[in-house]
Amino acid sequence: MIKRLIQPVLEQRLSESPAVALIGPRQIGKTTLALDIAEHRPSVYIDLESDSQRAKLFDPEAYLSEYEDRLVILDEVHRLPNIFQPLRGLIDRGRRKGKENGRFLLLGSASIDLLKQSGETLAGRISYIELSELNTLEVPGNAIDSLWVRGGFPKSFLSNTDKASLRWRLDFIQTYLEREIQQFGPRIPAETLRRFWTMLAHNQGGLLNAAQLARNLGVDGKTIANYLDLLVDLLLVRRLPPWHTNRGKRLIRSPKVYVRDSGLVHALLKIADKERLLEHPIIGQSWEGFVIETLLSVAPEDTEAAFYRTSAGAEIDLVLEFLDGERWAIEIKRGTRPKVERGFHIGCEDLKVSNRFVVYQGTETFPLGNDTKAIGVRNLARLIQKR
Questions:
Q1: Record: fold of 7-130
Q2: Strand order, beta sheet including 366-369
Q3: CA-CA 20 to 30 A from 338: which of 117, 263, 355, 359?
């Protein structure tokens, strides 16, 4: 089992809150992590994908009240959205008996916003945590290229061969298209959604052009917005917003769109291994998305993330603003000899950033001039983690 960095955070939240929701895409490792925690405390695990186990919760208050002294793990909780109301009553009764925290661990495959649509009744009683794909601090330093090529889903990363890894990712995509996605929204033809997902991979890290996507798919702009919202809610796609508070500049206002897992990008584009990736025009955008996901996965949860671009050519790939107001500017370059464009420095001056970094594929940290440092992705991830 790969030790996940989020585990101490999850255990801390269980000690502070009656219910914790651990969210992330399917196969990301939520169940493995939950069962590992369950080994160290009295627990009961209920898989809501199982008809027989779901039937136990025909009267959830009666059944779950038998386990007041245990941590109850409800896996794939979105399959039973009406469970939130009885959980509220159980939590409130438990509080009156002195059973304050660590009652329920809910595992879900959708975003916080989507779960909250059915879980508003737990307001003030639940804490939300997102489990992301494996990041560069969770794998050996010599495995970063493999993580980039195969992506951060544990079964894909740990496959015996690149071929087996690609086959797993293709099966994962097919299962999501045919079964998982259909649970969360109106019926969408799987082939149409595959084409849309593949178009996003081809345009990895590009500005959202809904009109162009709509023309290519033969649908209207509203439909494109619905498709994108769904993939974002399922934590498969990231919309990185533009920086928007500099009123004196003409800013780009469209978000950038990334397929969050680099391995899924490569699978959608039929890129089987590193050699083929090195020959593919998507390589720079793929590396950029991979770095962004690693850095955001270790950033404090209150960190604001955006990109900065003006019509005059100032550009920063990633701007992080921390809770204390400090801003970091991050440029992402593939290769081992990073070079910074003038537009990056202009953007840094516009935003009055406190730290400037250029992430490259090497491991050393060294100055590039103009208060800018070249740094490897693992080293920058460690700095951000310590914030």
A1: Rossmann fold (3.40.50)
A2: 304-309, 315-321, 327-332, 355-360, 372-376, 366-369
A3: 263
pLDDT digit string (tens) for 20-37?
999 999 999 999 999 999
Q: Where are the domains of the chain?
A: 7-130, 141-385
